[in-house]
Write a structure and sequence with these properties.
single chain, four-stranded antiparallel β-sheet, 3 helices, rod-shaped
Length: about 150
C-alpha cells in the first residue's frame, strides 16, 4: 500500500506555484496588450459632403454650383481637386485647401457650357461632383456626389 500512496501523491507545491505565476503573467500580458492598444489615438480619415447645389439660368448657358464639405476625421486633410462632370465631359478645379479636423468649407464655382463643351445645362439633369483629397501620409482618396440641376428664378 505504501507504493500506491507514492504514485497518487501529485505535483510538488513549488511546481504548482510556478505554474500559477506563469498563468498570471500570461493573463496580465493579454490584458495589457488590449488596454495599451485601446489607449493609443486612432487615425480616422473621413470627408463628408454636407451640402451641394447646382443652379442654371433658364437659357442653360452656365452652371453655378457649390459643395460644402466637413472633415469628420482626426487628421488634417488636403483637398487638391474638385471635378465637375456633366454630359460625359468633365472639368477639374485645383483648390489646394487644408481642412482641420471638425472644420467645414464651402467651394463655389461657375462653369459655362463652353468650359465643358456641352450644348447647355438642363433643369432636372444630374451633374457629378468628385472631391479629391489626401491625408498626412500622402494617401489619396475621393468622395463622389451627384446633384440635380435646378433653374434659377
Amino acid at each position: 500500500m505504501s507504493m500506491n500512496k507514492r504514485l497518487v501523491k501529485g505535483i510538488s507545491p513549488i511546481i504548482a506555484v510556478l505554474i500559477l505565476i506563469g498563468i498570471a503573467i500570461a493573463a496580465g500580458l493579454v490584458v495589457w496588450r488590449f488596454v495599451g492598444g485601446a489607449s493609443k489615438p486612432q487615425t480616422v480619415v473621413k470627408l463628408d459632403v454636407i451640402n451641394k447645389d447646382a443652379v442654371t439660368p433658364p437659357d442653360g448657358s452656365e452652371l453655378s454650383w457649390k459643395v460644402t464639405v466637413r472633415n469628420s476625421g482626426t487628421v488634417v486633410l488636403t483637398i487638391s481637386k474638385i471635378t465637375l462632370e456633366y454630359g460625359g465631359k468633365s472639368k477639374d478645379y485645383a483648390v489646394n485647401k487644408n481642412l482641420s479636423p471638425g472644420a467645414s468649407y464651402e467651394f463655389s464655382f461657375t462653369t459655362t457650357k463652353g468650359d465643358l463643351g456641352v450644348a447647355g445645362f438642363a433643369e432636372g439633369s444630374t451633374a457629378k461632383i468628385k472631391i479629391t483629397y489626401s491625408d498626412p501620409t500622402g494617401s489619396t482618396n475621393s468622395e463622389t456626389e451627384y446633384v440635380t440641376i435646378r433653374t434659377s428664378g
